[in-house]
Amino acid sequence: MKQYDTFIIGHISRDEIVINGKTESRPGGAVEASSYAAIAGNYKTGVLTKTSQADRALLSMFSLLDPSDVYFAESSQTTSIRNVYLTPDMERRDCFALSHADAFSIADIPEIESRIFHLAGLIAGDYDSGLFPFLARKGLVAADMQGFLRTIQPDRTMALRDWPEKTTFLPYIHFLKTDAAEAEVMTGTTDRRLAARRLHEWGAREVMITHNTEALVFDGKEYYAWPLVPRNLSGRTGRGDTCFSAYITERLGKPPRDALLYAAAMVSLKMETPGPFKGSRNDVEDYIEKFYRQ
After folding, report:
1. Which residue in 28, 44, 51, 140 has the fewest CB atoms around it within 10 Å?
2. Average pLDDT of each block of 10 consecutive residues along the chain (294 residues)?
């Protein structure tokens, strides 16, 4: 049976990114950014994704993985999202769901073993709820709340809506990630530390909240935070996915403070170049020495 450090479950998306009125089209998605971050850390990584049969060639984006570590489940359609950034810091954006792939279910999960099962979602409805108790029996569950809060509206825009089942399923989640806006929707507070504490009290073991200034983690005992220090924001898309994936894989062997430092440095470096992180562990460690050890 195949064994992984992290097994990432998420949809490929045909992205349209609009910045200053200019549109760039490329395949992507949280599953792509997350897999590159884990691979850069030298972790054994597997991926499960869904597209339409016609779009199966998109699996070529996982070129750093052995083909046997990329698992495919057919969907009636492929997810496609248009992101229109509204501010220079790229913190505000309008999102439009052009299409939405079928949800992942227990039947889609291959016979593999993994230390972490990472739900790298994009849109509410990406996962059947039964996955939580099923995966929690097999390994540590990591979940990005984007895939549970970002809800398609009748006009195809996407808005953040609270997760009605949060108190039922948060206890199955070891690593939980939100950004600042998602944390406010779930907890009702703009205080990121208080939000992290509430999400922990509702059941999640370790809570990460990302912001354009820092990455914050609360493990039920202490808060940990490291600033993000990119020299430019040309690679802003995929920031949270990269940070979360780097953190949870580093946590397999490091305490929270050290794992978060590595994640903050990786995502800071990643934000300087569009696309997923294509550097190495050595690149991240050099960045830490240059920008975090001063």
Report:
1. 44
2. 97 89 88 98 98 96 96 97 79 85 98 98 97 98 97 94 97 98 97 98 98 96 96 85 98 98 97 93 97 86
